[in-house]
Amino acid sequence: MASTSDIKNGLCIKYNNDIYKIIEFLHVKPGKGPAFVRTKLRSLTNGKVLDNTFSAGHKIEEVRVENHKFQYLYPEGDLFHFMNTETFEQISLNKNILDSPGLLKEGENVMVSINTETDLPLSVDMPASVVLEVTYAEPGIKGNTATNATKSATVETGATVNVPLFINEGDKIKIDTASGSYMERVKE
Length: 188
Hints:
Number of strands: 16
Distance between the termini: 50 Å
Low-confidence stretches: none
Largest sheet: 6 strands, antiparallel
Helix content: under 10%
Shape: flat
Structural class: mainly beta
Number of helices: 0
């Protein structure tokens, strides 16, 4: 058993007969009244996000997880196939377990959290950013640079990202996997 002082991002807990991963948390100490922890939890079974508040000192049931490095192989409908880079064992995971499946490129390495009690995969942690090639982008309109104007572009995985007007087809761009937003153009 853990308490609210042990809460951190990425911690997996049992709550309401389900397993949740803590996405965000904030310790709040109001001037009047007891302290509490405001959290944002993601269900690892259905992917729904839940806002919850725990009072200070509240006991939470922690789920023991092990992180293993896996390589993404290929998609098949709603299933995504991964291979353990150490044992070469293959697993298939449902699309709703992944944070941003549209940004996952074949051959990409990810960390998979596995429940030690049941040996079932719980979540997939992608790298902080990925570099993808733009396969389609409308041409930028000349002279439309007075504001932070953006246009939509399609990357090699099929995802659509808003990018600045100077990005063209064939450019490689860095994308933040947490928000799915454009970070910078990558020069080779």
